[in-house]
Structures are given as C-alpha cells and as structure tokens.
Design goal:
elongated; mainly alpha; 73% helix; 4 helices
C-alpha cells in the first residue's frame, strides 16, 4: 500500500474532525488546531525570510502582493 503524502494525511486528519459528534468538542479541537497552524505559519514565514525569501515570494504562495504579505506577517518576523 503506498504511503499517503503529507497533504493527503493532513486532509484526512482534518476530515476526521467532522466525525466528532459533539459540536462544542469539535469546535474546541478546530480552534486548537487553528492556533497551532497559525503559530507554525508564523515560524515558517520567519524561517523563509531568514533563508532569503522575499515578501514577493511569500506573497506568491498566498496569491497576494508583497505589500499584503508584509502586512499580514510583519509581526511574525
């Protein structure tokens, strides 16, 4: 059986959240994961900038201008 790629594993994990019966428990799980992902995103932007990525490069990942990327992530760097 082939290994699942990281995006597929993540999609499967996210889909499994929908199986949590209690909406409040599910909401707590979603909020917790969102907080963790935002922290990971901020750290990754800092690492990308330290590694030489430009704001234009980062903006391209999000489909926004370099100015929009700077506004969104300036506090992270």
């Amino acid at each position: 059986m082939p290994k699942a790629t990281p995006p597929r594993r993540i999609a499967k994990a996210v889909a499994s959240l929908g199986e949590i019966a209690d909406p409040m428990t599910r909401l707590e799980a979603v909020r917790s994961i969102r907080d963790a992902l935002e922290a990971l995103e901020a750290r990754t932007v800092r690492e990308a900038r330290s590694g030489g990525a430009t704001w234009s490069d980062i903006g391209a990942v999000y489909g926004v201008s370099k100015q929009a990327a700077q506004q969104r992530f300036r506090k992270s760097v």
